[in-house]
Amino acid sequence: MKQALLIVDHGSRRAGSHELLREVAGVMRERFGLSIVHYAHMELAEPTIQQGFDACVADGAQEVIVHPYFLGPGHHVMTGIPILVRQAASRHPGVVCRLTEPLGVHSKIGEVILERMTESQDNNPISAVPLEREVAREDAHPHGHSRASDAPFRFCPRCGMALASRRIKPDGPELQACPGCSFVHYLNPKVAAGTIFTLDGGIVLVQRAIPPAYGKWVFPGGFVDRGERVEAAAVRETLEEVNLHVEIDRLLNVYSYEDSVAVIIAYAAHVVGGELQAKDEALDVKIFPPSSIPWQDLAFRSAHDAIKDYIAHRF
What we know:
Mean pLDDT: 85
Helix content: 10-25%
Distance between the termini: 56 Å
CATH class of the largest domain: Alpha Beta
């Protein structure tokens, strides 16, 4: 079975910070002889976990081992990354996927720390600075909020070389292409589907447990798998997120925006079974009367527009 390693870190908006993970992937290839090694970021930058997983499969991997490049088993390692990895793996039936433990406490960690201690002898000592003289970092947000990065896909997910802008067709747009292999980063839209329905007189909304828009509210839905009927995807995602079986009544609308990579297809539906429950990708699930929709805390513009359309036709 052809095996691949996918190394995942958190991701950062700071320029140049992603070079570290790229170098780690290079070490695993060159020093340890692994033939398929890719890297990905959980959020804030590309390649995403989905892109990294896809690259492993494109290179012929039949088994993908995902290593969280984190020190300990925090929320990201225990919840965020497994959810995103499951989503990525769901697009490749038949490919085996396993998650490793994070770096954790290992005897070799001590060797690295001792080496760093020795190296520090050449560094200048840090002098204490009064708190009132500290300067705020430009990348620090006073409230600790973060948002998804709109940085371009800069490195080839197959070979790691820097991508360059190239016009593939004379009359086509400039695309990011790899000068070292045949990879081209096509900016194709992503199709998502979801359902809006009433239960006990209100609309069921999910509080997101994954980025982007972590903690915000949205109607049940998610990405459509390749080869899956859109209506079936909407029904499946509803069951996976809120534990309810629904049947489609009609197409509500299709929502797309100039600044978004997603095309959202929303259906009006009705409940035929199940018991309302927040599942893996939800922090919470609630029933909101139309007069109490949390408009300011909705996750996406499409959620706002679709719920507004649903209320206009339903109530």
